[in-house]
Amino acid sequence: MDLTVLQRLEAESIHIMREVAAECERPVMLYSIGKDSSVMLHLAMKAFYPAKLPFPLLHVDTTWKFREMIAFRDETAQRLGLDLHVYINREGLQMGINPFTHGSTVHTDVMKTQALKQALDTFGFDCAFGGARRDEERSRAKERVFSIRSARHQWDPRQQRPELWRLYNTRKRKGESLRVFPLSNWTELDVWHYIHLENIPVVPLYFAKPRPVVRRDGAWILVDDDRMPLEPGETPEMREVRFRTLGCYPLSGAIDSRATTVPAIIQEILQTRLSERQGRMIDHDQSASMEKKKVDGYF
Amino acid sequence: MIEASSDVDFYLRAQERRTLLRFITCGSVDDGKSTLIGRLLYDSKMVFEDQLAALAVDSKKVGTRGGDLDFALLVDGLSAEREQGITIDVAYRFFSTDKRHFIVADTPGHEQYTRNMVTGASTADLAVILIDARKGVLTQTRRHSFIVSLLGIRRVVAAINKMDLVDYSRDVFDQIQQDYVECAARIGLTDVTCIPVSAIHGHNIAARAPEMPWYEGPTLFEHLESVDVGDLEALRPFRLPVQWANRPDSAFRGSAGLIASGTIRLGDPVRILPSGSESRVTRILVGDLDVDAAVAGQSVTVTLADDVDVGRGDVLAARNAPPPVADQFEATIVWMDSHPLLQGRTYLMKLGATTASATVAPIKYKVNVNTLEHVAAKKLELNDIGVCGLELSRPVVFEAYQDSRELGGFILVDPLTNATVGAGLLHFALRRSQNVRWQTLDVDKSARAELNAQRPCVIWLTGLSGSGKSTIANLVETRLYALGRHTYLLDGDNVRHGLNKDLGFTEADRVENIRRIAEVSRLMVDAGLIVLVSFISPFRAERRVARELVQPGEFIEVFVDTPLAVAEGRDPKGLYKKARRGELKNFTGVDSPYEEPESPEIRIDTTRLSAEEAAEAILQHLRSAGMIDAG
């Protein structure tokens, strides 16, 4: 019996998670509420069944996530009986850091990158799972499945450990930590196909629906709450849109779509000619910006 | 290529049947390897419009094609290497056709990056080797083919690239094909397909090239889509390396892991290794689903009929065909670190879900990857490939690499830096691990120790030359002798006159020097003696080996701590002066490092204590640790 692509990918991801559970002292799963996190969580439930997850989940909340994301997060944690930590950079919150006044670069650095580092240090986690995939972006294509980070959470692309066969080196010095990416070899289509086959719940924002949006820098931005300042003369219009990736609502561009089911989304991806991260405003800040963020400690 | 389909259900069902092919591309910097991969992505419609727009901008800015689309830029990932125009590491790319999903390991081809190629090859089922049609089979082609063969890849595609630059000449192609098939056969590669291509123009990649009507074989896509990837692993006997024991409560005891080979069915009898106990399979879980059978490549959790002990590192195997267990091997090692592999050094070895200490026995030879000649060697440098013996701290379950990547491939980790320093392929267990047994003797260490009325131990003095080790060791021995204790002092200089007179002062010889001293100390401890060792012993790794040879508590590390300036000022033998003049090479503290002990049992600060006081401190420790009477 020849295993299918998805069977192989599933087996590999589960193997990676079990290695972490067996060899790391205080692992945590970074849960970003998006479709990749949903798949990663689903795989983790399988990897350790019938035992409960041998690690908690961590959501770094920038306070600018879509309301539907937060509702989905809390519902998921309750449904699966998860041990979920929510971490907010209180200092950044008090300083009133937000994507409108400070721009996406400062907002992402303070509320996401710095917050993540604070959270890992506060709880003393020595290993964090992330849902990143190698097909997402050029610099990710070269990252290891097990990626060692300095005590200051920095990534040094020239000091990566060679990774052979299924053998992962989990050893680290005190203070250092690992970032582990069980979905490294999945593609966007694999993720949706698996969601379809396994019937995995995802945030409703992925499905098309009339939503109030405004046009900003060539993207449709959802007016998710009244914190969003409208330009003079700008009025939200109702359009049938959906999101390909989810993040902070002011930084996530929606696309015109009629896809209301997972197969329809798959069909749309097959027909569309734009890449997934195209809707993300933060990657476009500067050329090769993802690589720079990773060096600084962004996931 | 996936065409936009109006019938998405049909597409989804087709997805169900798609298989996975992992391959590696090998070629040197200007063979057009990145261009080929960029072309594979482009022709399989994996490049989106926004990426194409970015590519057009990048092509104008940094492209090498005079503003035309430079496909290499699609895959040259990190900005540092885009600027240098080279790829520096392994990158993984993904593309799909209707029939298959592909994962490509993209690795650079220059000589210094053997380690990257080995990394990429370790998970590949097939290799695409690029040959520049203008240059034909080169030294590097042989090197790449050798590594491909070494890592157990059986299927090879030779993509004869840049056919446009040789006027699409059939004669050129035929000649290279003949040369390469001969070259590959000598290395043991027999499943070779040669395809004439031009990656820049896309000729014979996805579409046939009208420029080469004489070529009737498959295009690269056609070949990759149809080549048989029938999994040999599935046909071999069942093996499940246990990663994790799943015990949520007393009712469920599961063993979780990824099946390395074979098939397991409910009720199958299994043997648990290395313990050798036996049982039967009562449940097989794939995720949260109970199944009747599972095959190689699946992650499963199995439960057994009997309450037998199974933990991480154990292997569940077919009862009638269990794998061997051994603690000494012959292996090929690919060295991946800038500090060389040395005979006698101990590393951590990860094999399957097991980690053990592995000491490097004599290196038989290293392979010149360009000529494939065997060359004598005492160490392996970065990117060297060599064959040597390995002695493990305990027996492990294994299989020969040629039979099983999962139970025959291993990595070596430096226990001090935690770096992954080597990759290895196990070949066979060395006979001596089966034939030479430690003789159990009736008079043992404790019996001899009792007769001597003392507890044997090693007092290991380490420190710079001129720190005062020999003086202090001599005083300690004198006092112990006066107390009627049985001792022996091994002094660095004296031992080099006899046992170690064949050794010089290179790093490799120093490691061997210490290894012998450590072994002699162990024998003397076994003989019931208090052994004093006075040796510079500059490397932590070797002192650790010496410590691990004896029982816990029997090794007393004494750090004779003297600042370099003070030791150099004393210079009792005039050695520092010689070293500074360049007449002595590899002199510790001058042009060779001294690694201070991190937690010695005793630290002697010779700037504050006299030699007599230092000797007294050591005796005091012996009394309080119960090695000699408190009197």
Topology:
The complex is a heterodimer of chains A (299) and B (631).
Chain A lengths: L4 H19 L3 E4 L4 H14 L8 E4 L6 H14 L3 E4 L2 H5 L4 H25 L3 E3 L16 E4 L27 E4 L7 H11 L10 E8 L2 E4 L14 E6 L10 E4 L5 H10 L17 H8 L3
Helix pairs in contact in A: 1-2, 6-7
Chain B lengths: L7 H10 L1 E8 L6 H11 L5 H14 L9 H4 L3 H6 L6 E6 L3 E7 L7 H8 L4 E7 L6 H12 L4 E7 L8 H18 L3 E6 L23 H7 L12 E3 L2 E6 L2 E7 L4 E3 L3 E5 L3 E10 L2 E3 L1 E3 L3 E6 L10 E4 L6 E11 L5 E2 L3 E6 L2 E14 L6 E2 L3 E2 L4 E13 L7 H4 E5 L6 E10 L1 H5 L9 H8 L4 E6 L6 H14 L4 E5 H6 L9 H20 L3 E5 L5 H10 L5 E7 L2 H7 L4 H6 L21 E4 L5 H14 L7
Parallel strand pairs in B: 1-3, 1-4, 4-5, 5-6, 26-28, 26-29, 27-28, 29-30
Antiparallel strand pairs in B: 2-3, 7-16, 8-9, 9-15, 10-14, 11-12, 11-16, 12-13, 12-15, 17-23, 17-25, 18-22, 19-20, 19-24, 20-21, 20-23, 24-25
Helix pairs in contact in B: 13-19, 15-16
Written description of the protein model:
The complex is a heterodimer of chains A (299) and B (631). Chain A has 299 residues and is of the alpha/beta class. Helices cover 35% and strands 15% of the residues of chain A. Chain A contains 8 helices and 10 strands. Chain A has helices spanning 5-23, 35-48, 67-80, 90-94, 99-123, 188-198, 262-271, 289-296, and strands at residues 27-30, 57-60, 84-87, 127-129, 146-149, 177-180, 209-216, 219-222, 237-242, 253-256. Chain A has a 6-stranded mixed beta sheet with strand order 3-2-1-4-6-5. A 4-stranded antiparallel β-barrel of chain A has the order 7-8-10-9. The longest helix of chain A is centred in the middle third of the chain and has 25 residues, at 99-123. The model of chain A is unreliable at 281-287 (pLDDT under 50). With 631 residues, chain B is α+β, with helices and mostly antiparallel strands. In chain B, a hairpin with a 3-residue loop joins strand 2 and strand 3 (100-106). The termini of chain B are far apart. The chains are: A alpha/beta (299), B alpha+beta (631). At the A-B interface, helix 1, helix 2, helix 6 and helix 7 of A face helix 1, helix 3, helix 5, strand 2 and helix 6 of B.
